[in-house]
Write a structure and sequence with these properties.
Elements (H helix, E strand, L loop, with lengths): L2 H12 L5 E4 L4 H9 L7 H12 L8 E6 L1 H4 L9 H7 L3 E5 L4 E3 L7 E3 L5 H11 L3 E8 L17 H20 L3 E8 L7 H21 L8 E4 L14 H15 L6 E4 L6 H13 L6 E6 L1 H11 L6 H18 L7 H6 L1
Parallel strand pairs: 1-2, 1-10, 2-3, 3-6, 6-7, 7-8, 8-9, 9-10
Antiparallel strand pairs: 4-5
The structure holds 1,3-dihydroxyacetonephosphate.
Length: 350
Amino acid sequence: MTHHAHLEETARALVAPGKGILAADESSGTIKKRFDSINLESTESNRRAYRDMLFTAPGLGEHISGVILYDETIRQGLPDGTPFTKVLEQTGMIPGIKVDTGAKPLAGFEGEQITEGLDGLRERLAEYAQLGARFTKWRAVINIGPGSSEASPSDRIPSQFCIDANAHALARYAGLSQDAGLVPIVEPEVMMDGDHSIDRCFDVSVRTLRSLFDQLYEHRVVLEGALLKTNMVLPGKDAQDQAGPEEIARQTIRCFRNTVPAAVPGIVFLSGGQDDIPATDHLNEMNKRGPHPWELSFSYGRALQAPALKAWKGEPANVEAAQQALAHRARCNGAARFGKYSSDMETAAA
Ligand code: 13P
């Protein structure tokens, strides 16, 4: 099989019908925040036990196609020494790895961020491939600052410079990842923080994706062997006017139709602070409106893990309940891939 055919096959498997991705690639800082919420100390052994609970949940592979790991996690495994990458492969899930080293302040652009991690990336990718990773992820952060429209003075956030700098880094990363035989998941996240309208999020998301696909083209990235992970088009968390699922689905699909080439096999959503049930509901609403030129799937972190984390609380006795909570969210999101989710699924399982 050619290099490109191999990438395309993996990309398609990650967005197979009825399945989506579990993002479990929290950095040390982020997992500490999650553990703080259950009053659990973030030690290497607690982090291992938590990921062990998630990855060995019975039946998880039915609705989870792949799992994104963090540098520490890809080197960990079961107490008997079996690496997590093996555990995942054995249950039909593809191991992946977050390869950026985080979003840092963008010099000269107060309130904006640039994602780092390109230096030495070729060598790190080779090591991750050796450890069993078959795909990778890089996240860029695009903030929306105060202001009411995009047709506004040049000091508004996000600046075009920030959007373009992040798009350039995403494309550099994607090219290196494909060179290493690993499917890149390019993730620009337009943040929900703020009181902006859904229209403003639409405009910023369009600008972000236009710049990204320009750069992917310039960098000769093979779109058939890549996936897009991004935000839904939503009003800011603190906006007065919140939007219903129909409006969110309509604006999100319109945004993608204007910016994402049909050559891309799939678009997977991040949850970005949406609660678990709305995140499922929104995905469902979008798939009800299909077929679309791309698979519309999920790559949720919090929206898949939150109920499991709460049930687990770091206690071995709670592992089974926590695994059931995770499997339940995976099943609901699996149904949302076909537009077949309904709130009955929540009550039936409770
Ligand atoms: P959330 O779904 O919690 O936003 O996490 C997904 C992710 O991988 C962000 O990079």
